[in-house]
Records
---
Amino acid sequence: MTFLAIDIGNTRLKWAMYDDFRPGAALLAHGAEFLEHIERLAEGAWAGLPAPDHMLGCVVAGDAAKRRVHDQIEMMLGWNLEPLWVVPSAQEAGVVNGYDYPLRLGADRWVAMIGARHHMLQQGPARPLITVMVGTAVTVDALDTEGNFLGGLIIPGHGIMLRALEGGTAGLHVPTGDVQRFPKNTSDALTSGGTYAIAGAVERMYQHLSEQCNAEPMCIMAGGAGWKMSPSMTRPFQLMNNLIFDGLLVMAQKRWGQ
Ligand SMILES: Nc1ncnc2c1ncn2[C@@H]1O[C@H](COP(=O)(O)OP(=O)(O)O)[C@@H](O)[C@H]1O
Ligand SMILES: CC(C)(COP(=O)(O)O)[C@@H](O)C(=O)NCCC(=O)O
Ligand SMILES: [K+]
């Protein structure tokens, strides 16, 4: 019972093939393509894969990207798949969506929270939970001990922050620098500024959530640039590279399992 999970962010499409659609399924193959290379999937990374029985994805990159992926799936000989995409709802898998308009929440944030809460409950008792996703943009989302999504932050990712500063000034065209506590050149000042802006936002959310819930939150971080943040975080956290896929496996089991 093979399962294809797809996560289309604003920079890259990530995909993973599993031998089953339940948490803990074995990873058979995985990969990532920049969005401009979606058309390579069918004849490239996906060629030779076993035909998946089910597919579930989340997409925040717009309908055009989704349609281009449908075209790739159609090109796969022997695949007979109905592509299904996550739509954030009011409640799923023990998580309650507190957004003013639940549908407007990014599908990737919804899936990540569901994956993170499932992961936490596998490890021990329920606690407040923060999911941090460091991709094109950075999102910092808060769940209380009962699984209510209380709300979250959206901030620019490293790349967007740098490009915005480069574009809006005359003197900030410099190579990437290092993260320093007291940067003494422009490159280090920009790199450190972006990194601590993100780390500071997570710290604030940690304070807000621990005050709100009277308990120490668990913090789970993911996303293509999560590793860049690791040395600069102020609180304990777990890096989970497959967080979105884990969330999709939880949702897939609810849809097709049993
Ligand atoms: N090998 C890599 N390829 C692409 N982006 C990378 C890579 N390593 C780190 N990054 C960083 O990760 C970000 C993209 O992360 P990703 O999780 O793919 O974003 P999204 O989900 O928004 O597409 C980029 O902004 C880039 O700074
Ligand atoms: C915040 C995001 C742009 C993050 O995108 P990403 O960095 O993963 O490409 C995405 O989750 C999104 O478009 N959200 C919709 C708006 C919202 O969540 O409020
Ligand atoms: K993402």
Note: Residues 162 and 168 are 10 Å apart (CA to CA).
---
Amino acid sequence: MAVLSEEEIRDGLGRLTDWEWDSEAATIRRSVRLVGFLEAVALVNEVAQAAEQAGHHPDIDVRYDTVLLVLSTHDEGGVTEKDMALAARVDELVEGTARLKE
Ligand SMILES: C[C@H](O)[C@H](O)[C@H]1CNC2=NC(N)=NC(=O)C2=N1
């Protein structure tokens, strides 16, 4: 799967929620704050299920109530449609949680 151009990435981010492009790292990232640590871990579990289904896996960093998700396609060295698709799925999962920190 081909690496997306800067324009394609910006376009794709416009259809996602709160994802940022890190051009230096060639990744996209979203940080989500929940009401506490267990809620953060629960979200990680939901993302893990979706990732296994997709056969595509984000880098995940949990710091107390905050989950940082970073996506790239390692095999391609950049952002591809696989990352955009998993990011959209993550957005659905985040949307569905009542445990977000407002
Ligand atoms: C064989 C298997 O599909 C690959 O190793 C997958 C697994 N999950 C992956 N996840 C991510 N984020 N990037 C990859 O390149 C990748 N490769």
Note: The chain has three helices and four strands.
